[in-house]
Amino acid sequence: MTRLFILAVYCVLAIHVNNLQAQPYSSVHYDTKDGLPSTTVYDISQDKNGFIWFATENGLCRFDGKNFKTFTTKDGLPDNSVLKVHGDNSGRVYFTPFTHSLHYYQNDSFYRVPIPEKYKIDLSTITMFANKGDKVILSGIGDSYIMENNHLISIHDKYEKIPKGVYIKKVFDTLLIAGSADSLFFKPDSGKIRSYLSSAKETAVIVFDENAQKQYLSIGEKFISRPSGNLSGNLIYLLLDNFVNIFSASTGDLIHKIKVEKLSDAFIDNENNLWISTLGNGVYRFPSFGFTNMSFDGKNEIFSLVRNDHQLIAGTDFSKIYSIPLNDTQSHYSTTYLSKFLATSGNPVSHSTKRNRIYVLCFEGNNLYIGTDAFLLKKTGSSAPVSSNIFPVKDIDVANKKILVCTGNNVLLLGDPDMSVKDTLLRQRATCGIVYHSDYYIGTLGGLIKINSATKNITELYTLLPPFRGRITALKRGIHDDLWVATSGSGLIRYKNDKILQILKEEDGLTSDICTSLFIDSNLVWLGTNNGLNRIETGKEKLAITRFTSANGLGADFINAVLATDSTIYVGTAAGLTIFNKSILTEKSVCIFHILQVSENNNRLKENSSYSFPYNALNIRIDFTAISFKSAGDITYYYKLEGLDEKWNTTTANFVNFSVLQPHNYTLFLKAVNKFGVESDTKTIRIHIQAPWWQTWLFRITVLTILGLLVLLIYRYNIRAIKRKEETKREIEARFSALEQKALQAQMNPHFIFNSLNSIQTFILNLDVEGANNYLTNFASLIRQTLENSMHPLITIASEIKYLETYLGLEKLRFRDKFRYEIFIDETIDQKNTVLPGMLLQPYIENSLRHGIQHRKDNNGLISLTISKTGDNCILYTITDNGVGRKKAEELKSVRHIEYQSRGTSINEKRITAINNQSKTNIRVNTEDVLDEKGIVTGTIVTVLIPPLYK
Fold it and tell me: Which residues contact 76 (CB under 8 A, 6 or more apart)?
């Protein structure tokens, strides 16, 4: 059974066959709520800068696509009621107020055009034209005039008298055709035309081409009023009896016919928007002629679309389905009512589900599946069984003889053809679903999940891939074995092989991140959002996105459903059905940027390219606008203040404000990008913030003089300070010398001298004259070396070793050979030229004897001195003993009486500190216990690190 037969049976249920209620073109309406000063608008024009001007009964109004600015008598307008308006090629805007005078507006000022008394001009019926140059031509009943040097001159005065009948003449490179009815016609891009009525044919208007050939523009019906019109490109549009008739200038065929009650004028701007003014209903803007909008039975919203051979089937609310012939969308449609199925749906609230929206229409073979708020219906021929208790239906996908149904309560798997429930896959609300790679992918309010068809295991993909988190609105299989996922807030996502391949969002060119519907058309993806339709071409390296909105001709911006055929796109919106050709891309769009004014603290400044402000200037504000009527105010502005900003800033406001700027020279860069990505030219303003008085040269010279005097005073003070510092230095040196003397005294302590004398006495009493003589000789040598070394702050290593050997020799004699000593010197060290502070090591060796070796009970004491060089040319002195260690020595010290307390090491520390401060060096001393493998103390080690010193 063919689909045509199904549709024939299907249409038997139709109750009505009606004519389509088609509004061929969508429009934007402006009235006083939007900013128009009056709903009575007499005339429309566009100036050189792109602004649209309206002549109204309450003032002259300028429009930039977002804001209306009205000029009245308070601004210098001669009269608030303006009848005609026209912008010429020089930047002037001419207008005729009700006072029957001629004026123009330029650079924020109004001027009057003097009219000679001999010219009897009815300015209420005048029509103004602009040729390619800077001339303006006025045409009225009886004569035509030319603006020249701000004066009005009659064509009859300037040129030979125009005879009756048709007369052709070149005027300022513009073709002027005059007829018995004073009609004028200008070449393309030259402005308005005046055509005259043919006396032989009352249903046509005659115009002339450049070769003076007649062209009949057939209206198709008899008219009474005299037509007037304009020319734009290859289109001629004539106003006649509340209709705007649009003709092809080349063929004379009527292309479009738009009825507007109380129309007064029509105008086509530089973006091909058609503006129509009315006497009481405001202004209409028609952005495109390529889009057709339809409504049904006075109801508009379309929720679902499906194609069946030569029919388009649309699901709407109140249980109704419309069928429209694809090849005749301007004639008839049939309506099918499904409300009778509410009673058998099993929906407990079906009696109150009157609206019953038809969300899903799905053809599979000979079957049409219909999903609504209240029931699921399958139509096959005359059979239309209702699946009970399945509601509300959100999505249907048929694959492998199984029907996947997503509802507001669960996800079901139905058998085909009996429609019985085979399995419940998920017991929660689902928004959409699809069979992909044999598994079930389900969209929910929380995100995208996958259900394994074999095991029924559920995988929450949104936990693995965060972009899938949130409401999923549509799922479609792509032609490249990929899955397209539409979300409500995260844009459009392309998925394949368990990976997200691509994410498209508003910053990538989408009209919105809130996606509502999806349709795959070969390599084209059609994405509906809450703010328009997107055409995404996937066959390129970089996806090409074309946007369509109500500004282009869609009936509404919230898209419920999309369907594409070979050549046509059908869009279901809240306003009905929109139809347009697939080949149509976004129409001509411009973005013209203008700086409106510069002000400082609410005081408007004269227009200029550069401005200078005092240092205390506050609230420097720049007002601007960008003209793109198709963008309907959806424009992003970019600005960068060079000298302050490194990157561009963005705003959607029509101004930028700088509260406080530091003294400097700045350059402000401004530009705009419209809704379609068209970028304007970049404007620049130079801003100079003056320096305050205290930054002037006079102030600087005064300050420098005062600073000079201060420097002189400070210099004298510093000289005195240096003298005081020298005195302090001398005091420090004196203290240093005293410390040196204390160190020498500590080395030659009385206890050592007393013990040495006792040792000499013992030798004498024992009649050991030779031993006494040797000891006394060595003692005298030590005294002599001490006195000699004390004369020099630095001595050589050779002198220090000689001194230490003499000292250790005496101590060895005194201790009766209780210890022995060893001295090791690195061969690479030059002992005769390497220096160190004199007698720096002796106190540490003395400590080793008195606190370490002395307490040993045997005669195996050992003191070792090792002198080595480090990698950074420092000299490392290592003194090691095998005494009892520091802790044991402290214990013995506390229980034994010590006749003499050595202060050599403490004085040495102060001495090292003084040397470091004076010589800017860093001598370091470290003392540690020597431990064996068991952690028992076996002696003490002292290291002295001395950086290179020089005499």
Answer: 109, 110
The dihedral through the CA atoms of 506, 512, 514, 519 has a sign that is negative
Q: What value, to the nearest 5°, has the Cα angle with vertex 674 and ends 671 and 675?
A: 155
Q: What is the CA radius of gyration of the chain?
A: 52
Q: CA-to-CA distance for 142 and 181, rounded, in angstroms?
A: 8
User: Do the beta carbons of residue 813 and residue 775 sit within 8 Å?
Assistant: yes
- Report CA torsion sign: 73, 63, 129, 680: positive
* Phi (first) and psi of residue 386, to 5 degrees: -100, 130
Give the chain's residues under pLDDT 50: 1-15, 161-201, 210-212, 224, 226, 329, 745, 748-749, 751, 897-900
Spatial distance between the Cα atoms of 181 and 191, rounded to a whole number of angstroms: 19
Q: How far apart are the first and last CA of the chain?
A: 118
d(CA 734, CA 249): 113
Which two structure tokens, joined as six digits, stand for 459? Answer: 């995988």
Residues 6+ apart with CB under 8 A from 432: 394, 395, 406, 442, 443, 472, 473, 474, 475
Cβ proximity of 575 and 555 under 8 Å: yes
Q: How far apart are CA 368 and CA 345, in angstroms?
A: 17
Give CA separation, 199 vs 164, 180, 622, 758, 846, in Å: 15, 11, 58, 158, 140
Instruction: Note the pLDDT of residue 521.
Output: 93
- Token pair listed for 755: 């013990």
Distance CA 344, CA 348 (A): 10
In angstroms, the CA 695 to CA 726 distance is 41
Strands (E), 437-553: 439-444, 448-451, 458-460, 472-477, 483-487, 492-496, 499-504, 515-521, 524-529, 532-537, 544-548
What is the CA 325 to chain-centroid distance, rounded? 46
**Cis amide bond preceding 417, omega within 30:** yes
CA distance 22 to 224: 27
What is the C-alpha to C-alpha distance for residues 531 and 523, in angstroms, rounded to an integer? Answer: 23
**Phi, then psi, of 863 in degrees rounded to 5:** -120, 125
How is 161-203 classified by DSSP, letter by letter?
PPPSS-EEEEETTEEEEE-TT------TTS-EE--EE-SS-TT
* CA pair distance 681, 690, nearest whole angstrom: 29
**Phi then psi for 740, rounded to 5 degrees?**
-60, -45
pLDDT digits (tens, 9 = 90+) for 553-581: 888 899 999 999 988 999 999 888 999 88
- The answer to whether the CB of 306 falls within 8 A of the CB of 361 is yes
Question: Are 278 and 263 spatial neighbours (Cβ–Cβ below 8 Å)?
Answer: yes
Distance CA 114, CA 851 (A): 123
What whole-number distance in Å separates Cα of residue 130 and Cα of residue 135? 6
Question: Would you give the distance in Å from CA 165 to the centre of its chain?
Answer: 65
Q: For residues 13 and 332, what is the distance between their CA atoms, to the nearest angstrom?
A: 16
Q: What is the spatial distance between Cα 234 and Cα 215, in angstroms, rounded to a whole number? A: 13
Could you read off the pLDDT of 466-521 as tens digits, one per residue? 999 999 999 999 999 999 999 999 999 999 999 999 999 998 889 999 999 999 99
- Residue 172's contacts (CB-CB under 8 Å, 6 or more residues apart) are 131, 132, 133, 135, 146
Strands 835-837 and 263-268 come out as unpaired
Rounded CA separation 516/559 (Å): 6
As a whole number of angstroms, the distance between CA 909 and CA 747 comes to 14
Q: What does the pLDDT read at residue 585?
A: 62
At 167 the pLDDT is 38
DSSP-assigned letters across all residues of 375-422: -EEEEBTTB--EETT--SEEEEEEETTEEEEEESS-EEEEETTT--EE
Q: What are phi and psi of 244, to 5 degrees?
A: -100, 110
Report the pLDDT value the prediction gives residue 669, as an integer from 0 to 100: 96
Q: Which one-letter amino acid corresponds to residue 519?
A: F
